Every structure is written in structure tokens, then in C-alpha cells.
Amino acid sequence: MSPQTTRILVINPNTSVKITESFEPILSSFSAPNTTISYWTCPTGPSIIKTQAHMYESTAHCIPLILNMVDNFDGFLAACYADHPLVRLLQSYVGSKPVVGIFDASIIAALQLVDPKSRFGIITTGVPYEVLLSEGVKRFLGGNAKLLAKFSSVAASGIGMDDLYQRSENIARDKIMAATIRLIRTTDTDVLVMGGVILAGMEGWVHEACELELGEEQGRKVMVVDQLLAGMVMLDALLRHKTADVDFSRALR
User: Fold this and answer.
1) What H or E segment, with its residue span, contains residue 216?
2) Which is deepest, 18, 28, 180, 248, by most CB within 10 Å?
3) pLDDT, tens digit, for every residue of 78-87?
4) Same structural domain for residues 45 and 124?
5) Residue 71 and residue 164 share a domain
6) From what superkingdom does this record's organism come (predicted)?
7) Could you read off the pLDDT of 17-53 as tens digits, one per residue?
8) Nearest to 97 by CA among 21, 30, 8, 24
9) Structural domain boundaries enclosing 108
10) Which has the closest alpha carbon to 184: 148, 203, 211, 202?
11) What is the per-residue DSSP string for 95-129?
């Protein structure tokens, strides 16, 4: 008898198909036997999520549509880098089926990987996300002072949708490297998290910036967490082993 196939739905809660398409090259590298990954883009609602209001609006659009598909999947990956209400609300509807948000998973991964004497930081897109993600980290960690001490800050790169659509590689590289250098120069950080779905695949520039700023040997010690892979590692563990106690080294890029 052949093993049962595990079915995962990757959810993009905004309406940008271009963003959803950028997930596939990343997640295709994730090795999980007898697993199929499907991708879904919300057909209505915000085209990109920039505010807390956008999160609630996109949740209202997503939930009724996803609930019609719940029986077709075993687990769900919410691919929006924020403390998105969709994650908690969908969890309340689907019962025992795991729902993982890439934001949550990346923070758990960073806390597991961070050195005892250093901290983790987040590289993000626009300046508004610096406050949005910082507040999201605080909420997710429940005000735990010991855990919050492991979080340094969020650095905005200024990368926007134009960089994704126009593939302005040199400009995007410069933006990512500048944000990385600003973060590691001002904080004692040895784990960096990619904090924005349009940054998928840009981890190499973060490594380049770390080696430029810290020197080749020290720069290579900085770990870069892929938000999408962190989510998939956690979801795969919940589906197969019913635990989130996992090795997040598979989420490093």
C-alpha cells in the first residue's frame, strides 16, 4: 500500500499573482516525501499589505474562500510576513489541521538559531514595516522580557513592488546591502530574518553585506533565515510529527 500524500496549501492573502509565483522556486527546494504543494492567491482585497487595516481586510476576503477548500488540504502555510490575523482565525476554523504563518515560524527559527550572547534582526521592505513588525514581534512573544532581549530591531530596505516587477537587480542589491549593514553595524546580531515575501531569493546579498561589513570570516558566521522555508519546516514537522520542536537549520539560505 503506497503512503498517503500530504497536501499543503500555500496562501498569499493579497491579490498579486506575481508574488505567489515568486514562492515556487524557493519552496520547490524543500524536500518532503509524499507531499504536494499548491499555491493560492486571494482574488479580491488589497493588492499588497502595508497596514494593520490591510491585514484585517485581506482576512475578511480570504476566510470564506479558504473554508470552501479546507477538506482538500492537510495543512496551510500563510505566506504574509506580518502578525496576520488570518493565521489565528483560520486555526480556529480548521481544528486539528495545522496552520503556520511564515512570520511566526521565522521568529521561532531565529530564537532557536541565535547565539546566547547575541540577537536576531529582521530585514524588511518599506519603512512602515519597521514599526509594524517590531510590534508584531512583541505581541507574538507575549511581552516575555527574556525572549524580547534576543530581538534587536527591524531595518527597512526600501524595496517595493517596482523592484519585483522591473527586476532592477542592481538597485535591489544596493537597498538590501544598505539595510543589512545598517542593522549589523548598530546591533549585536548574528541571525538575520528576511521579513517580506518580495524579498524571497535575496538572501545572497545579505551574506555579501555581512562579509563586507564584518570581514569574510566573521561575516560568514551570520545566519540568514528564509521566511518561506522556516514556515514549511515548521508545517512539515507539525504534519508528520505533531510537534513544532524542529531543526530550523533547513530554513537557512
Assistant:
1) helix 216-219
2) 180
3) 999 999 999 9
4) no
5) no
6) Eukaryota
7) 989 999 999 998 888 888 999 999 999 999 988 888 9
8) 8
9) 104-225
10) 211
11) TTS-EEEHHHHHHHHHHHHS-TT-EEEEEESSTHH
